[in-house]
Each structure stands twice: as structure tokens, then as C-alpha cells.
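USER:
Class, as today's exercise, take the chain set out below, and explain how the chain folds.
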Amino acid sequence: MNKKRKIRLLLGGILTLALVATCGVVYQSGSKSTPNEKELVMENEEDSVDQAIKTEDREDSEEETEDANTSNVEGTRDVEDQAESETDGTDQTEDTQDQGTSTQDTGTEETDENQEETAQDSETASAQITEQVETAMAPDLNFTESSLMEWPVSGQVVIDFNMDNTVYFPTLNVYKTSPAIAISAEVGAPVMAVANGQILSITENEETGTTVTVDMGNGYQAIYGQLKDVPFQAEEYVSAGAVLGYINEPTKYYTKEGANLYFALQKDGTPLDPLQYLP
């Protein structure tokens, strides 16, 4: 029994030591866990601080983002305003260019009008100068009752002048008065001006063909008929002996008389006998 009791006491002591050891270990582990808990608390606080800092950073970043977005919007508005101002400037420039173009067009039109007026003035001045030169160079038109003419062509008088009695016209086979003379000549023979004069007209006549009327001054006129190739025009001056044209084929009124020059002389419209003024 004592032996069993001793064993029980031994076991009880061992258990007691084991409990004491366990308690000591537990105590030591508890004392060691306290700083760990403190460390965890500090870590949690640090995490809270970090989270707070991160939250503040996020808020700051969000504010910066909002500011950036606001600045971007304002920048965009500034860009749009600048673009609008540039567009307005472009429109103003285009308007100015259009005004400048219209001004240039107006100036060009005015220049063209001035050039046309200058050209017209020049032409008028040239015409006046030409007229003055021609007048200065014009022969003296002073035919009088005592003046003598040159023969217009060389040939025989085939029909005489006669306003008092009738004259026979072979082709027409009639007798009638004759206000002119007919001088025979070959076709193509030159016809000369009988005196100084100015051409009044060049006409076509059924009886006398191409007919040239020349003013010799003081109401005297010489009329040349049955001509061709007249080198002058109306209002031009001719000198005595100038070639007025050439003998043409006779008209149907003078076929039997043959090629000839129809020549008449008038004073203020009254027929005169050309032979009285020819040498």
C-alpha cells in the first residue's frame, strides 16, 4: 500500500510540476504575445494612417484630376474662342480681300475707261492733225470764168455739148439736148483731173457708169463718167493732171459711139460748154 501511495504521490508531484511548467509556459507565452498584440495594434494604426494618407492622396488626386479636367475644359473653351476669333479674323481678312478686289476691279474699270477716253482723245487729235495737214497741203480751189482746164483724155469729141438745140445720139437714135461732151478713148486709157479740186462723190449711174464729181471752187464742178479703177475716195483732194481713173467699156447708151469719156462742166448746177474752158 505504501508503495502504491508513494507512486501516487510521485505521479501527483509530476503532474503538479507539469502544471506548474505548463502555467509558466503559458505565462511566458502570454507575456510574449502582448507585444505582438501591441505590434499588431501599431501595424493596424499604421495601416489606418496609410489608408488615411492614401485616402487624402486619392482625394488630392481627384481634386487635381477635377482641376485638370476643369483646366482642360477651360483650355478647350480658350481654344474654341481662339478658333472663333481666328475664324472671325479670317472672315474679316476675306472681307478685306473682297473689298480690295472690288477696289482693284473698280480701279481697273476706271483705268480702262481712262485708257478708252485717252485713245479716243488721241484718235480725235490725230484726225484733227490729219485734217489740218490735208487742208494745208490741199491745192488752191479757185476756178473762175477765166480759168482754163486741161484735157482729161486725148481723143475726138463724138458728141457735142448743146443745151439750146438737139444733138443726135447714134446708140439711142434720138435727137436731144446734151449737157456734156463725149470724148472717144481706148479702154484703159488714164483720165486726168482738168483742174485742182476736191472729190465730192463717186457714184454708179445707169447711163454714165462709174461717175466722179469734183468741186473746183467758186461753184464750178467737173463730172467724169464711164470710168473704172478710181483710186480716190470722197472728200479727197486732187491736183490738176492727177489720174482719176481709167476708161471703161461703154454703157448701153453709148455702144455705137464706142469707148468714151463722159465729161460735163457745171456752175452752181447749171451746165456749161466744156469746150469753152479747154485750150
About this structure: The chain has one helix and twelve strands. The radius of gyration is 69 Å. The longest helix spans residues 2-137.
